[in-house]
Specification:
- Pfam families: Prok-JAB.
- This is Mov34/MPN/PAD-1 family protein.
- The protein is an alpha+beta fold.
- It contains 2 helices and 8 strands.
- The protein is globular.
- The C terminus is likely disordered.
């Protein structure tokens, strides 16, 4: 499940600006992508998607190609991100799928006409141990 994070060092003001620009350009639909690090710098990698105002779908091959390009380019996936143009500030159950790519997720949401961000971290429910 996603839990709010108090991590503030992930998002520089420049990175937040770039995320907001992408979210704004995608309106009225959602946007999606990766936050990656190469050396000391972080940047966004928008991912092509089929998006509506309340859902985003990325073809699995597109995700694999992006992950391979990052690996070949020596970049590290730091977080996933996507937007909620309707202003919902919490991940939906559909957003749990982002945890397959990163345990950190940045949600952009509309608040008072501006884009706000919230960082979430994924924690798996405790696994039950079964004796055989």
């Amino acid at each position: 499940m996603w839990s709010k994070s108090t991590c503030t060092n992930l998002l520089s003001s420049t990175l937040v600006l770039r995320l907001a620009e992408q979210a704004e350009a995608a309106l009225p639909n959602e946007c999606v992508g990766f936050i990656v690090r190469k050396g000391p710098r972080c940047f966004i990698l928008p991912i092509p998607a089929i998006a509506t105002q309340s859902r985003v779908y990325v073809h699995p091959q597109v995700l694999l190609d992006a992950a391979m390009a990052l690996d070949c380019g020596g970049a590290e996936l730091v977080a996933t991100y996507h937007s909620h143009p309707d202003g919902t500030a919490a991940p939906s159950s559909n957003d749990n799928l982002f945890s397959a790519w990163s345990r950190t997720h940045v949600l952009l949401y509309r608040s008072a006409g501006h884009w706000a961000t919230q960082v979430y971290v994924w924690s798996s429910p405790d696994c039950n141990t079964f004796d055989s």
